[in-house]
Amino acid sequence: MSSDVLRAKKKYIAIRRAERRLQTRLDDIDWEFDVLLPEVEKLELEASEKLEIPEFTIVKDED
Amino acid sequence: MKIKVSTKKIANKRIGLDLEALPDPTGTWYGPAKHKLALCIGYGVGDDLHYVQAIDRRPGLFSARDLLRVREAIVGNIIVAHNASYDIGLVNGLLGEHPDLGTNYELPPMFVLDTMGDFKWGGAARNGLSERCDRANRLGWPVKAKIGSPNWRRIAQGDKIEWKVMKEYNLTDVECALGLEEFYRECDSEKTIKIKMWKP
Questions:
Q1: What's the CA gap between B115 and B41, in Å, rounded?
Q2: Mind listing the pLDDT tens digit for each residue in B132-181?
Q3: Disulfide: which of A40, B36, B79, B122 matches B127 by Cβ 3.0-4.6 Å?
């Protein structure tokens, strides 16, 4: 009996996690199309116009 | 943690390039040895246009000095050309197989702005070079378009007069590529050409 509860609990957790991952992935796809890709497009066009590209460096906070 | 953004210059200036080659007798448009049929190279920008041609008007045979001049002019700049990878590939072939130069002078990866690379097919109608030039001119951007073509058979025979026609044809195309690129970049209603990378 207790193993049946454990099995059901694990399946429930798996389904809920999968739902959450799916929702996050779907939201990510919307964000990529609506926000990220236009930004990348802008970067590419600016590179064509100005003949320069951005460089990104990670810097540590000064505490 | 923060992300610092700075800018990096990727080229000094735009430079037009056009290489003419004889049609390949095997019928392929761009075979591996197409550079052996290369006739002339036009390059430059604005009033600073240059032209080099095959020694004694023999396809594929260029002086090392001329090729190095072309190389010096284009490396470090961004190439503007119709079907740019075709022209750069052929210049690279000429450099790489020149008996006096060897592989040391092959081209590095280069940035290109290809005036024919993107949005080649516009809807149902063919969006070829002349259609693009027509459009630019209709919208008030004067783009010098290619008019006519040399007689390729006479060119192959080394006809001096026809080679003069070739020079004008070639340099007009360099100006055309530069004009078209400027049109796409500056005209608000047009789509800017994206930078691409050519690799050997």
A1: 17
A2: 888 889 898 888 887 778 998 899 899 999 999 999 999 999 999 999 99
A3: B122
Q: Which residues in chain B have their CB less than 8 angstroms from residue A57's CB?
A: 3-4, 6
CA distance B22 to A59: 55
CATH architecture of the domain with range B14-198: 2-Layer Sandwich (3.30)
Q: Tell me the nearest-neighbour CA distance from A48 into chain B, angstroms.
A: 6
User: How large is the angle between the packed helices B84-96 and B64-74, nearest 10 degrees?
Assistant: 140
The structure tokens listed for B188 are 């608000």
Q: How far is B5 from chain A (nearest CA, A)?
A: 5
Q: Give Cα B157 to chain centroid, integer Å.
A: 24
State how far the Cα of B86 lies from the Cα of B129, in Å rounded to an integer. Answer: 15
* Token code pair at residue A42: 């802008």
ipTM of the assembly? 0.72
For residue B78, give both structure tokens. 């961004």
Identify whether the C-beta of residue B115 lies closer than 8 Å to the C-beta of residue B190. Answer: no
The total of other beta-carbon atoms located within 10 Å of residue B126's CB is 10
Q: What is the pLDDT of residues B62-75, one digit of tens each?
A: 999 999 999 999 99
Q: What is the pTM of this model?
A: 0.83
